[in-house]
Records
---
Amino acid sequence: MATDAELRLRERLTRLRNLSLLGGTKVSGELEKLQRQLARIQAAPTGEEIWRSVELARHQDRPYTLDYVSRLFDDWVELHGDRGRADDHALVIGLGRFDGRTVALVGNQKGRDIKERTDRNFGMAYPEGYRKAMRLMELAELHRFPLLSLVDIPGAYPGVAAEQHGQGGMIARSQALMARLGIPIVTCVIGEGGSGGAIATALADRVLMQENAIYTVISPEGCAAILWRDAGEAKKAAAAFKPDAVHCLELGVIDGIVPEPAGGAHTNHDAAARLLGESLQEALDDLESVSPEDLKRRRRAKFRSLGVYA
Amino acid sequence: MSSRIDVSIEHRNVPEPPGKRHPNTCPQCSSHYRDDELEAALWVCAQCGHHFTMRARTRIASLADAGTFVEEAADLRSEDPLVFFDLRPYTERLAEAEMKTGLGEAMVIGHAALDGNACELAVMDFSFMGGSMGSVVGEKFSRACDGAAQRGVPLVSFTASGGARMQEGILSLMQLPKTVCAVEDLHDSGQPLISVMTHPTTAGVLASFASLGDVIVAEPGALLAFTGPRVVQQTTREKLPEDFGLAEQNLRFGHIDAIVPRPELKAYVARLLRLFSSNGD
């Protein structure tokens, strides 16, 4: 069955093939990329493959935000604190040189060993973390730096203080701020794109997903606990709600899939970074010439079109 | 195509249902009422002031001036993009919810007058699949924003929701940014969102449009939390404060503007509508 996503890709492919006069490297690169994505869509992943993505997305050796920053940026100054109450280590912000331009980056950061994991709260930000992200977004808007966001969060943190400090409202306001920005925003889900915590920094002009990343409304365990009344049924839940990159592309939720080295990003951090860098660069190039007004208008229109109903 | 899931062993870990209280029995003071008594009291317990869940149509009738409410987008229905199947198919759950509630979805929108003030209303109904937000709720809210912007009137939302609708997977998460963008468009048109949070307003709805109200009002005792007390307790084993996540705690921490008992709500919202109207009359 030809899905909408497949038809859209086919249409773009045909258009690109017919642009013989513009057969430069950029267009043929685009052609190749579309063909790769089409091939992926034609082979929708099975339940087993989806669960493999869940495992790879959570793999302890998977590169985290700072692993990519150190490989992709020529210079990087990490900034700290929300200018109100705290410096949330579950989320890093900073300025860096990427591909000859200054960019602002926000990314979720998990830890490698027990000490760092605890310090970074397993990548789960508190409301202070979202406010830290918002502070960077305002800085980027003021100085017209493009904004990159790397998403890798199991989910918003279910804690007493997180609620008391207004987690729900902060996630809403972070999205609202992103909907107002007149700078290019590129997001890539590089591991777990977990629910509200993920969308808080993912309202972007281009939303990408790594091949083995997952993007979910609730963790497979949480979904299983509610709908199957047994968290052990996570595998079934994942197969049912299809959090893998191919299905997200098919549903129009993401704009492209970033390939990973064979076996997954954890097998070769350098190669994974190179592939991610190429995709981010391409997305930024595409958005560079769009006016702030148009960026904002198109971004809102894109998100407002998401949903399936009759 | 999506693989169907084996359901033969689904029922082994289902817990015993807790002793069910009659829906018209007050969970706080155990006073019991007839339907017509509760209806006349706006579904508020006359003994202790407990606010029962209020259905969307009853809510609208209690707010809109007689004969002014005109419903919009009533024919929108959910589809089943993931062919989702947990213990039962999503389509079956939808059909059952519609039969049970007489509503097509968990939100009713339309325009109305409230004490003579024109406004757009978006009212959620918790009885329809726990007020969960899927594509249709997102689209209806989005259209309510546009309706308000086009008429040049404020939007008043009443939320009651357990969060995003899991059966629509990632698309239900996308209703967060969708409704957020709709509120931003509404704000660009110069109109406010007045957000009334009723019990419960949690997860995806709290983390999107409900928290973006220019003024946020809550009903007494409403649970307003991104993560509810049960899950917080289970995951962190922290000792929870008595009023954890309730409207009263949210007011103390600065997340909402006021707690207004239901019988005073119409007059309160009407005052806000007058203050927001450009000439102030």
---
Amino acid sequence: MEKKRKNSRLREIWFQLKTNKLAVVALIILIILIIVAILAPVIAPYHYAEQHPKDSYAPPSAKYLLGTDKLGRDIFSRLIYGSRYSLSMGVIAVAIAAVIGITVGSVAGYYGGWVDNLLMRFLDVYQSIPMFLLCVTLAAILGPSLRNAIIALGICTVPGYARIMRATVLTVREKEYIEAEKAINAKDPRIILKHIIPNAMAPIIVEITMGVGSCILSGASLSFIGLGAQAPISEWGAMISDARSVMREAPQLSLYPGICVMLAVLSCNLLGDGLRDALDPRLKN
Amino acid sequence: MLKFIGKRLLMLIPVLIGITLVVQLLLEVTPGDPAKLMLGMNATPERVAALREELGLNDPFLVRYGRYIWNLCHGDLGNSFMTGRPVFSEMIQRFPYTLVLVCISLFLSVVFGIPLGVFASTHQHTWKDNLAMFAALFCVSMPAFWFALMLIQRFAVKWRLLPLSGIASWKGWVLPCVALALGFTATITRQTRSNMLEVIRQDYITTARAKGVSEVTIKYRHALKNAVTPVIMVVGGMFGMMLGGALISETIFSIPGLGQYTMQALNSRDYPVIQSSVLVLSLLFAIVILLVDIIFALIDPRIRSQYISKRQKEARTDQKKEDQEKGAAHSEGR
């Protein structure tokens, strides 16, 4: 029974989403990117760190689809492996942020009073530091590496999720079914986990979809300034950073990874827009 | 109104204390010894210990935090570990560059973003709207640093129209400002459009149409005026994001502003500089948010009315009482 009901809800969202062509295209692109990321070692003709010193700056050919960089590494393979690092950067950072944000937001929204006040004042201070500045500072202090960049990104994007969750929980809390739960003396954790959070998920899902995009973007920026993925890892931002020093000799090297970042982020944003309309058709313009 | 401003100013104090505490705590948990960093790899342990004592790094956390706050109140942000120069004077020197960069970019985004958003909303359901919206989403999704590199490649390397970096003449400002402004222009466009579309559905627009106001007046006076106020709020938040963007922008274009200073300090773990940069940039952000709130309160009568002065309030209640008494007398007379 339970499963069937969930399915019908999903089908309803899918039905709404289907009408938005751009969102469907974005979803397909994202699925392809995820498959490419998972199957990178199978698809990529070379390993991302494999050097062919004789073929430095080789032009695009059958052997190297998009040419090679200074060390003779195949750009195409590096891009494919890059999707692994860039996507995981976005997904893991958002997972960290969303879990903390949802917890903080639902606790603050459900209990209200001084708990709410304390948590929200804390978030005020948090958000008064420009987000990217905090992120860069954290990443630098933790030490430059892919893992630390993800942690920094995750920690810095918590407030957005917490605030949205709190706002939704405030409205869900007043619903009759919550009152009914309380009337049968259900425990608070049960109410929050089984009733509040599932019913407050819609805006968070949209935020998460968009958040993956913006985390990929910020993650690329961190790698670009040397605080994210370290050589020879071919994260897209790091690839642009590598290409920067040889912009005169090989301008195309910075072009491809940039397009990849843009494609991934654009797809996330389009899907997020589509999901928002599908989950709440009233907002649709 | 003064009460409103006073209240908002008071709220700034806990935020500032919070920021200093957060920054101090961050540096507390940082691995690595600044004294060792200052002296280099092959320093003797005795010298490191002596320097730690001299810098006061051995004191307990609260003592150091107290000392930091005490110095802060005297306008002393400490000396840079790397250069030994006072951070405060260095920051004052660099501050104008960042301010100019951010303000020009913000100006550009508002000047282009709002008209574009209005244009898109007035052409809803046409290819013009779709194109503008897709372009805006495209620009939002583009990494700003990558766009900056592409601009450099075209305008500086290939066509040699503009300088590669540095700000020797006005030409040097063009690329950094355009690169920083692009994403924000797109955000403002999207925001303006969705606000416009929301406002156009309101009852007062229907009323205006019903009484025969021309479509142009409706769009640009009735609708735009109401749609633009929330955009101002967005612009305030954007200022903070731009300060973050300035970190990268200034590094790419070698502009000697606060962003570049911060990045250098982060790379060399220059603690006093990192601390002060975060503090100063956050303070700047907080002040801008405060200004936006005040402007918003001045524009929006709904907020203004909550904070009318006492005398005005009394005058109003007196007026009400008088009316009521008059009404009562009137009905008694009947």
---
Amino acid sequence: MSILTDDERETAAGGRGEGAGMAMRIVAEAARLMGAPRLIPIASAHIDGALYHGDSGTLFAEALTAGGARTAVPSTLNVGALDLTGCSRVNLPPHQRDMARRMMRAYEAMGCAPTWTCAPYQAGHRPAVGTDVAWGESNAVAFCNSVLGARTNRYGDFLDIACAVSARAPDYGLHRPENRRATVVVDVSGLSAALRASETLYPVLGTWYGLTLGSAIGVIEGLQGFASEDRLKALGAAAASAGGVALFHVAGVTPEAPDAATACGGKEALARAERIVLDGATLRGALARLSTAVGDRVDAIAVGSPHLSLDEMDALERLLAGRRTTRPLYACTGRHVVRALEASGRRAALEAQGVTIVADTCVVVTPILPDIGNGAVLMTNSGKFAHYAPGNTGYAVQYGSLADCVESAVAGRLIREDAAWA
Amino acid sequence: MGVNDGQRAEILLPGAGEGDVLALTHPISFWGGVDPRTGNIIDARHPQRGECVAGRVLALPGTIGSSSASAVLLELVHAGKAPAAILMTEPDAILLLGLVVAREMGWATPPALRMPLEAQRALPARVRVGPDGAVTPA
């Protein structure tokens, strides 16, 4: 194993405990399979591996803890399969519930921070520009690379915790500056200012971007003054679920793209880049793909993928304006937001209006939505929920803005204001 | 060079196995595409839907990368429903990590070898994969 230094080789041989040895061997094997010449130190990790898919993942986590494995860098946890805060009810059978709980506890026992959120970057985990890190979960990876400018590949199950314990990652892919340059320019400056100022654009733009660019790296021009952090979060999440996007640049907004030329690696590279000018008609095609249901039936509403920020929770509360929903409205968020809501007494008020707060998990990764059977329709403002809900929950989907979601939840049927797309 | 001449493939993860060949005609995502409890292909859009990967020499023309593919493969190994061997055109580290972890857990793991598409298409109905990477008719 010439990939490893002497020190790393000693760890892999079990010199610092069997758990640390197992973690180092897994990272080294991943590096060999990816063709990485060496390992590099990392500053932090975000771990997606604590979501229960079956007993073997729990047994792996417990083998690490039994071997004394501890995270060696600050590490946050993505969602699990249970809501440990008790805000919402998860309908898992007893055996799965027990194994999911054991898995979550094992990751906490290794020293991971119990953040249980897919928006760790809004719960205080924000590595500096240019830092190498090992993050999992597709939206978190896209945000970390694109908006924070830290460097990570898509670290999947098992490799994420192995990197966190060994404080190492294979040196390849997006850790290398030359692999982070844009080769495609996406010009959206022809879209109306009203559309660019509307939150409903960003999941749709992200869906189009993911479908069109796949794993190519693009730089978007024309969003200066429009792209807030929550909008970039929605764009990246939709792009990552539609097309495996791990990094995108926004000219004048994201840290590696003061302008399009810099994002491409120079004026000549910019001239060579493919250029796509996006128009409203093309985007309306992506908009249509997000909804799979027809008619005005709505059985439940889900928002918060990625998890709602406190700002987004404020917006939900403002739009509800004291009214009661006639359909269940699930608001998925992290316990960092729940704490803030509880401190101000707003959680109880929201629940009294018919909102179910879902913390530590979300409605497409574990059974929370009511089992209505054939024909059930979920409304959402999330491109990611729209992508995964049909396969994972059996619900057909209607996509709309947050305001549309709230109005539909109150009315008990689909209400959608399409003016921004005209 | 065909398998009937005694082909030797590049070893990605070592081991030995024998089984009936299941050569997929389209790439597959293990997560959402293969049932981790049974090994049945469940992706509604996949041409080999309804086939079972358990105990087969599985030839993959490509994988679609969900980062939970490794979890599905680990679960298949744990449930005794893993393929007898995996042949792939390019190493997919996310999928193969499931075998790396299974080996760390002390569970018996199938070998994984690199094999180009033309060689996959020319495989006989049943093959044996040797510890040296030799793929021979069985």
